[in-house]
User: Fold this.
Amino acid sequence: MSWIVLGEDKGDISLVSSREIDGIAPKGTYLTIENGKKKYIVRVTKSFQTQPYNPSPLLIDMNLEGLEADKKCQNIIKAVRIKDISDRDDGLIDFIRPQLKARRSTVQEVKNAVRDKKEGIPIFLSTVFANSIQILKDNNKNPIHINLHPEIFFHQILICGKTGRGKTVASKYLAQFFVEKLKGAVLAVNVKETDLIKMYKKSETKEGSILKEWEAIGKKPHGIYNFQVFYPSNTSYSPDLDIDKKYFKPISLDINEIDPESLTGILNNITDIAALHLPDIFRHWKDSQTTTGFRFMNFYNYFSSRENREFQTLNSRGDEAQIKLPYGTYQNILRNLNSASEFFDDPNGEFITEKDILNRESMCVIDVASKKGINFGAILLRDLLKRIVKAKTEGSSDVPILIIIDEVHQFYKNANSAEALGDLDVICRTGRSKEIGVIFSSQNPNDIPKGLESVINTKIFFGSEHSVIKKFGFNVSANEIENLERGYALATIYGTPQVKFIKFPLSFSGVFI
Amino acid sequence: MHKFQNRIIIDPNFFLSVEELSKKNIDLSSNFEKFPLISAEFLNEGNLYFNNIVAENLFVEKGQKITSDYIIGAYDESINKYNGLAGNAYLISHTYIYIGKKDYIPAIYLSFFFFSRSKELAVKNTNLIYSNDLESEARKVIHDQMLEFLKENSIKNSILLIDGPIFTGSLTTKTIDFNEYMVEKNILPIYIVKNSISNLVCDNVFSLKHKYNSDMHWAYKFLKPGQRSNFFIYEEKKSKRRAKAFCYLKTFDISPVRIEVYKDIYLGKQELVEDLMHLIYFLIIAQGEKQNPQPRPIIIAESFSRESIKLFNLNKLMRKIGIEGIMNQNRNMVNF
Assistant:
């Protein structure tokens, strides 16, 4: 079974199938070109069929069979060089000469070529031809998986794709690896249905292919042992959801503890500059309180009583000032304070801090999928992020942390969340040194706050619009990307640029299909 | 002078595929002299025999069926010529293919000759040939080489389609020997002639005389697409071995082709040869080129031949060894 090198054209190696090959090597296949002891691993980037003896249209029109020899097909391949296995040390690169033979790479050769990390994150390589995508298999038809370097977590990850194509499941898979293998902590924000809140349960499936994939990587489904869902105490779960209450904890915001800057999270439809006044007004008010144990309503009453809209302010440096809010801004803040009051000071809900999150081998989910939940999440997430960064910076915690913001486009539709994500920019840039990783999940990469793209080093696209991924420089057709089946993705992965088409194993927890 | 090594390139599957096809057989033995000689007319140089002048319909389905009954081979050659000041160089690619089970299987023989009127240059090497008539010497050498190549490489028990006439100029004896040798190996050579101004039929059939420019012209008018003429036998007066059977075959509404076989083969296997006209009709349709009505295997052989000759750049090779081209050679205006 071999392909024969025809030559090189603009960086692509051209190969043609030999007579004994009876099929097309799909895009993503790895081939090994042999030249004595030297080997060159290449990845197929284009693959198509050609007929060296095109049968006459006249015959076809006459409904005649024609000559069997005229039905001969060949597979023409374009491939990129991935790795040379050569002892050459003169600083030059070997030619890949015409007429060298290539065969399908072995599992070990593929692993070497993509710098497989033994204790890394197992994913399957996949191949694509026309609209058909499948897991790359070795000559014994076993799926080939490689292990991605866990460092990818701290170089930030973007996961995109249309609903139902696998981005949330991939997030779960990565989260579970982070908890169990890196012994880290995961903080995830659940914004949609029950996506992330049942990861204490093992996944269930009857799909044979998924069971086979788990078997190939030597894993079985299991829930996350240290798992906790925090939900706003003013909401509740329907009994239909079939949840185990012991994993669920109601939480509330504590006006005594909350960082004043986080209060901007409650504001909607207000300019960023106008929003900046609220923390300073709140800080001054809080500073002037002579007793502890005050409540959010106390601040609300203070704010609403100032009909002249004149307020004393105290900024984070301790500078006092006075401001008169424009009527519109005042009314807007007042309305939002009123609306947010239900999130605060509920005796049935605990106030959580970084200490509830930064625990080894644990996963916490803040469930903000309920009505108004996004506003609640915007305040809490901002507060928690500040606390986590502070704890990591000051060295009070050495627990690696992964923050997952699923369906970030929903979260971001709220202007306040944009501000919260502004903090994420800082985290992204310092993540590697502090072992803080962020996974952004979104339908559209354009939903990611501007400026973050450059610090996100791993981008994974499940079935997406071609126009959306075009700007990321992928050389794929619209059909290929838009018709990616569930679980399959096109990726550019930090440290493993040789890999393009991948398939995530199904998460071991929290998926029921 | 740089010595060119003639080389033969044989597909690795050449012999394997032969075994696969060995069940197909052709028997050319016995049954001679069955041709009913009802009418015969005489030429100055030879005799033309035929029965009635008739048009026979050809059936593509019948031809298709025959493809699975016999091994079908074909020959073609490509020639690169270099006109040098010191003589003429020829790079020749002789190509034989046969239709394998799922592919065309080629054997290619690349050869090189240099013909010169300079004895000094030409005597020391078998590939460097002295001659006073370079052109005709070249044709003779190439033709001989073709016959030897086909004798050595054609598959036994097969049909062999050759582009060109059975007899060319003065090369008769070797051609006759070749055909007789092939019969012994149960190989049936069939020659396909596209362009010809021969008048064997028109000059010797009274009713056709002076009515047509050539036999091709007559056949074009006489035949409808999908028809062939009856077979004629032509035998030279001087040498009765120089004899052939031929008919005209029209596939499309353009100039027909002439099909020639060695007379003895035709006489021995008249029914088979006539059946094979359906095969040739089918193979021309299989190729499907109305402007170049050739049986498909010949076109495939031609393609292999053209590709293989590209392996060497004759112009470059000649200049490298110091043979300067004549003016037209340097202007790429040389034809063979």
